[in-house]
């Protein structure tokens, strides 16, 4: 806590510094001023919690200081120390918020009691102010989220518009009785990669920054409001004024984006519709404008929905499925590139590529991956999680060049990399399966003397019993129990060649606690009992 001493006599200030119990009061810093004017400058700069002031001083008196504090720093607590027993001065102290009035010569106990009371009052009020600041910060953080939800709901359910009108008028300046509106859409998933990289993993900060830039332009003339569409990967602009100037407004916003982030955005523009019923239609038109824009057309950033749907090109990734499947199964990067090249050659011959087409091709890729997983892994439980992730159809990939324009070359590189990663993960999972089964076989060969069960092995290798049973037989041609029996019988045959070992000792040495059961298993495996086998070897 900071304490300010104001008195035109230095020896009085020095005396008070000696009398004040700093530890008891929690005083960390003691400031000094020789008059009210100097005190005001220190208060502005240092913001002390408690002020001890004389009343009669040159330049600016204690009374003037109290009046200034009352108007400009009411949070400060004031104790007056004066050599004048004057009722008018006492009344002035009380009138302007002083907490105590002490007469000189100063009594140490009285001074510390007055300061303790002032400090306690300041701390109580400071805690209230702290809580208020915290609530204010929380409200400021929640406010954009609140409006994101409210405005998104408004576009989905125009029936809420009537209840929201007054708040839109007061919060964003929407004119009373506004009859027409328009929606503009910005998609985040097709945004310039350089812009995303600037914000790293903090997509929320990216959205917050983009919305703020948009709202700087919209709020100046109260033209509308920008917000994040709730639950989606999209920013929406709701416009309600000067709708004939929307293209110019969006050009101005994009120039602002270029200055701020060194890149531009694509805007999908819906039609001007009646408020509120037409907002949903305007939103769909804005989204369709982005999906149908020709991505081969350079430096075109503002897009309007076409009057009619353009004819779709029949080019399909599925037409190249068999060559791609063989290439992926081979695991060869050269074969994968060779299998994809004819398809990309066909893509380059197109004069129009839309986001809708890319989305369709990406979904085709995901379908192929899923179908291949079913072929390569007949049991769905065997599919490694990383291969499921590689076939995820939700992660749309749109490759852009340094200018933020669609690049077929980069898209080919990205797409080829996806197939190569899928092939690599597939090969790795097979290798891992074989390695795991070989590890299990080696473990059995080393621990065949012990009581082994499929349950114990599954627990040791963190695999399911069903998975081990299936994969072990695929790898070795026999099930796990037969493999264990075969090892035990092979070891038993060697031990039976020693005539000094009893049958029970041989049984125990190869993992059988019951020599009768051992004899039964041995005869089933060899066609002879252990004794018969030993005699046969002796002959």
UniProtKB/TrEMBL annotation:
SMART domains: HTH_ARAC (SM00342), REC (SM00448). GO terms for molecular function: kinase activity. The modification 4-aspartylphosphate is found at residue 54. Coiled coil: none annotated. This is Histidine kinase. SUPFAM superfamilies: CheY-like (SSF52172), Homeodomain-like (SSF46689). Keywords: DNA-binding, Kinase, Phosphoprotein, Transcription, Transcription regulation, Transferase. Residues 2-119 form the Response regulatory domain. It comes from Gordoniibacillus kamchatkensis. Residues 438-536 form the HTH araC/xylS-type domain. It comes from the Bacteria.
């Amino acid at each position: 806590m900071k304490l300010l001493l104001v008195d035109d006599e230095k020896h009085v200030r020095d005396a008070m510094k000696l009398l004040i119990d700093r530890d008891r009061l929690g005083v960390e810093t003691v400031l000094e001023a020789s008059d009210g004017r100097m005190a005001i400058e220190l208060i502005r700069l240092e913001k002390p919690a408690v002020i001890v002031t004389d009343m009669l001083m040159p330049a600016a008196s204690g009374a003037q200081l109290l009046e200034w504090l009352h108007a400009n720093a009411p949070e400060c607590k004031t104790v007056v120390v004066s050599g004048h027993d004057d009722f008018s001065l006492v009344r002035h102290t009380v009138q302007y918020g002083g907490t105590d009035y002490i007469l000189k010569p100063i009594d140490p106990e009285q001074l510390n009691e007055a300061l303790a009371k002032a400090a306690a009052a300041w701390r109580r009020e400071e805690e209230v102010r702290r809580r208020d600041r915290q609530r204010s910060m929380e409200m400021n953080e929640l406010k954009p989220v609140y409006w994101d939800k409210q405005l998104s709901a408004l576009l989905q359910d125009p029936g809420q518009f009537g209840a929201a009108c007054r708040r839109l008028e007061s919060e964003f300046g929407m004119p009373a009785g506004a009859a027409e509106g328009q929606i503009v859409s910005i998609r985040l998933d097709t945004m310039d990669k350089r812009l995303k990289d600037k914000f790293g993993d903090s997509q929320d900060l990216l959205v917050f920054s983009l919305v703020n830039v948009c709202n700087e332009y919209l709020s100046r003339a109260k033209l509308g409001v920008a917000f994040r569409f709730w639950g989606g990967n999209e920013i929406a602009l709701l416009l309600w004024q000067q709708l004939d100037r929307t293209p110019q407004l969006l050009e101005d916003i994009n120039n602002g984006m270029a200055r701020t982030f060194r890149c531009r955005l694509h805007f999908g523009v819906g039609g001007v519709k009646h408020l509120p019923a037409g907002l949903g239609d305007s939103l769909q038109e804005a989204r369709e404008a982005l999906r149908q824009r020709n991505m081969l057309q350079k430096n075109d950033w503002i897009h309007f929905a076409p009057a009619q749907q353009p004819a779709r090109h029949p080019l399909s990734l599925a037409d190249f499925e068999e060559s791609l499947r063989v290439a992926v199964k081979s695991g060869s990067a050269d074969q994968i590139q060779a299998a994809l090249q004819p398809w990309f050659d066909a893509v380059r011959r197109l004069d129009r590529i839309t986001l809708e087409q890319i989305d369709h091709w990406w979904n085709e890729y995901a379908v192929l991956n899923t179908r291949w997983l079913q072929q390569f892994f007949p049991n769905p439980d065997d599919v490694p999680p990383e291969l499921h992730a590689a076939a995820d159809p939700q992660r749309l990939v749109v490759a852009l060049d340094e200018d933020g324009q669609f690049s077929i070359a980069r898209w080919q590189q990205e797409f080829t990399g996806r197939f190569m990663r899928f092939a690599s993960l597939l090969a790795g999972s097979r290798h891992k399966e074989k390695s795991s089964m070989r590890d299990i076989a080696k473990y059995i060969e080393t621990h065949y003397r012990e009581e082994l069960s499929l349950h114990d092995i599954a627990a040791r290798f963190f695999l399911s019993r069903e998975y081990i049973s299936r994969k072990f037989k695929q790898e070795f041609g026999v099930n796990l129990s037969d493999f264990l029996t075969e090892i035990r019988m092979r070891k038993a045959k060697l031990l039976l060649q020693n005539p000094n070992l009893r049958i029970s000792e041989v049984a125990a040495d190869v993992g059988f606690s019951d020599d009768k059961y051992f004899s039964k298993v041995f005869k089933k495996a060899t066609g002879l009992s252990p004794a018969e086998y030993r005699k046969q070897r002796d002959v």
